[in-house]
Amino acid sequence: MKISTRLQAIADIVPNESKVIDVGCDHALLDIYLSLEKNCECIAADINENALEQAKYNIKRYGVKNIKTVLTDGLNNIEVNDNDIIVISGMGYTTIEHILTTNKTSNTLIISAHNDWDFLRRTVTKLGYKIITEKFVTDKKKHYIIIKFEKGEGKYSDIDLLYGPILKENKDYLNVLYNNTFEIYEKVPDDNINKDIMKKRLLEIQSLIEKL
Ligand SMILES: C[S@@+](CC[C@H](N)C(=O)[O-])C[C@H]1O[C@@H](n2cnc3c(N)ncnc32)[C@H](O)[C@@H]1O
Q1: Mind listing the pLDDT tens digit for each residue in 99-152?
Q2: Which residue's CA lies nearest to atom 14 of ligand 1?
Q3: Which residue's alpha carbon is nearest to atom 27 within ligand 1?
Q4: Which end of the chain, N or C, is more open, meaning fewer C-beta atoms within 10 Å of its C-beta?
Q5: Residue 103, pLDDT score
Q6: Centroid of ligand 1 to alpha carbon of 24 (angstroms)
Q7: Residue 208 and residue 174: Cα distance in Å, rounded?
């Protein structure tokens, strides 16, 4: 089964035969792939009834048996076990934070937020996780970050939390980040207080690139 480059990058870091809870599954394409290609058992959950109806239709169309669908907000009404892999992808940071802080979570989280990855790293590491994998993926000219966290202690500097302990050594990521930050920096008026912060960020990113 063929899925998007972004979903494939997520699927690649899910171990074979895992039990997966996909929060915000939308049309459940990831779950169908994981079930067919990696022999996973999945819970495909979404808050949106129409999305879940499409998920059910797709699951039936592919003839997959080991995916259970749940209409719910986040992890509410889902029994979570330590060994489950929780995937939360394609949402904003605030929604992800809400999902992670209002319920029991498992030992492994795979998260792809739309924004505020620094806040995400801070929040999830404060919840007792360390960062195992960070991926920078480009799919149809859009850029995505995927982070895998596991329960455990990690020591992270401010630079690690801002740019990623692994991504801070990824030249492609740093170049894209530099260009995007520079584009915004140029549009910010000189008397705006954020201008200095952005200049500091640009110098930090430049220094990380030079070290590589
Ligand atoms: C942009 S889609 C991403 C779908 C898929 N995870 C992916 O990465 O392609 C976001 C999905 O998250 C769902 N969603 C948003 N907030 C949610 C919440 N609090 N609980 C469960 N699902 C949620 C939406 O209904 C939507 O189907």
Answers
A1: 999 889 999 999 999 999 999 999 999 999 999 999 999 999 999 999 999 999
A2: 24
A3: 26
A4: C
A5: 85
A6: 3
A7: 8
Task: Report how far ligand 1's centroid is from the alpha carbon of 23 (Å).
Answer: 7
Query: Is residue 74 lining ligand 1, measured as CB closer than 6 Å?
Result: yes
Q: Kindly report the pTM of this predicted structure.
A: 0.97
Q: How far is CA 85 from CA 4, 10, 21, 61, 167, in A?
A: 20, 11, 6, 25, 22
| Residue ranges in the chain whose pLDDT is less than 50 | none
Pocket of ligand 1 contains residue 69 by CB under 6 Å: no
pLDDT at position 56: 98
| Cα-to-centroid distance, 117 and ligand 1 (Å) | 17
Ligand 1 pocket, residue 91 CB under 6 Å? yes
Burial class (CB in 10 A: 0-12, 13-18, 19+), 155: exposed
pLDDT of residue 59: 98
**Rounded distance, CA 57 to CA 74, Å?**
21
- Domain 5-154 belongs in CATH node 3.30.930.10: no
Map out the domains of the chain as residue ranges: 5-154, 170-212
State in Å: Cα 135 to ligand 1 middle.
20
